[in-house]
Design a protein that fits this description.
The protein is globular and about 30 Å long. It is mainly α. Helix content is about 70%, strand content about 0%. It contains five helices and no strands.
Length: about 80
Amino acid sequence: MKFINTKAVQIPVSTIISILTAINDRDYARLKQLQTGLVKQHGVEVWQDVFGSRVLPALDQQSNRWLLNVLCNGETASARM
């Protein structure tokens, strides 16, 4: 069993909501901006824990597909969807 980094559980809910809103709005540029800010402030490991344990489980199937597509294909996929 993998435990969540204690710093990851201290990330404010408002930050998680902003990430989820960017995904819901299909706003890849905003998502990257939020990711970059979180990584700069807390580090890559915290981002990975937040993303894997708090963001991904909250996504519906359509949002999950969109996210997978833009992460694999970059911002150009965002414009097509």
